Amino acid sequence: MVNVIVAGAAGRMGGRIVHMVNENPDVSLVGAFERTDHPAVGRDAGEAAGLGAMGVKIAGSVKDVVDAGDVIIDFTTPEATLENVRVAADRGKSMVIGTTGFEGERLEELRSAAQGIRCVMAPNMSVGVNLMFRIAAEMARILGDEYDLEILETHHRFKKDAPSGTALRLAQVLAEAVGRDLEKTAVYGRKGMVGERRTDEIGIQALRAGDITGEHTVMFGGIGERLELTHRAHNRDNFARGAVRAACWVVDQAVGFYDMQDVLGLR
User: Fold this and answer.
1) DSSP 3-state helix, strand, coil percentages of the chain (rounded to 5)?
2) List of domains in the chain
3) ω into residue 39 within 30 of 0, thus cis?
4) What CA–CA distance (Å, rounded) separates 259 from 5?
5) Under DSSP, is residue 77 helix (H, G, I), strand (E, B) or coil?
6) How wide is the angle at C-alpha 70 spanned by C-alphas 254 and 81, nearest 5°?
7) H or E stretch at 258
8) pLDDT in tens, the chain (267 residues)
9) In what order do the strands lie in the sheet with 214-222?
10) What pTM did the predictor assign?
């Protein structure tokens, strides 16, 4: 039995993770927490998630619950996640991180803080999306420079970061597959007289509307034809289910920094 602690337990993703933990016989919810001033602090985590009482109160700090669990599942904010990782590392606890918005120096800071623990981090925990990464890379390698690479992502109006972490990971996968430097070839939106499209561009466009859970399309545009690879998330359960799967997997691994490709054996 893997003892799980859920960060941001009263949030949209946190609530779905509580549901998926409750459904999985191999894991047990032993802790839940929110930021100190959150109105859900003190409530039963199951009741906050719409499940009924589970006997686990939502704490106001990771430090109040960290010693109870084996692994923390965290889909919060970069600032909160970084603090949670530091506490987990101090106590030798594993982490599963689905928080997006980590890039450059901030990502390096996170990786440094996670040294010495078992950690799975992925911008998208969905099994389908991670298979998409693998297939997109193979398509890009086969099609080569004769096909233009464009990524379109669409999410709900409440999402704070853009492009999505999944779109950025797709762009990295494509760039690696065709041997390009993403920093030099990525184009984030277009406006005005931008000129003819360069062959090496990797376009990344973001849309925000309504309550769309998440959609990602990679377009391979050739002269006379195009291919499109699309993943549509109908709800958040696929992300939460993948996170619980990662939590079960990571506790038995050697100390290190992993992603969902490792969890699913796709590497």
Assistant:
1) 40, 25, 35
2) 2-121+236-263 (3.40.50.720), 127-233 (3.30.360.10)
3) no
4) 19
5) coil
6) 90
7) strand 256-258
8) 999 999 999 999 999 999 999 999 999 999 999 999 999 999 999 999 999 999 999 999 999 999 999 999 999 999 999 999 999 999 999 999 999 888 788 889 999 999 999 999 998 899 999 999 999 999 999 999 999 999 999 999 999 889 998 999 999 999 999 999 999 999 999 999 999 999 999 999 999 999 999 999 999 999 999 999 999 999 889 999 999 999 999 999 999 999 999 999 987
9) 186-188, 202-208, 148-155, 214-222, 225-233
10) 0.83
As annotated, the active-site residues are 155, 159
> For 29-164, where are the alpha helices, taking DSSP H only?
45-48, 78-91, 104-113, 127-143
The amino acid occupying position 158 is F
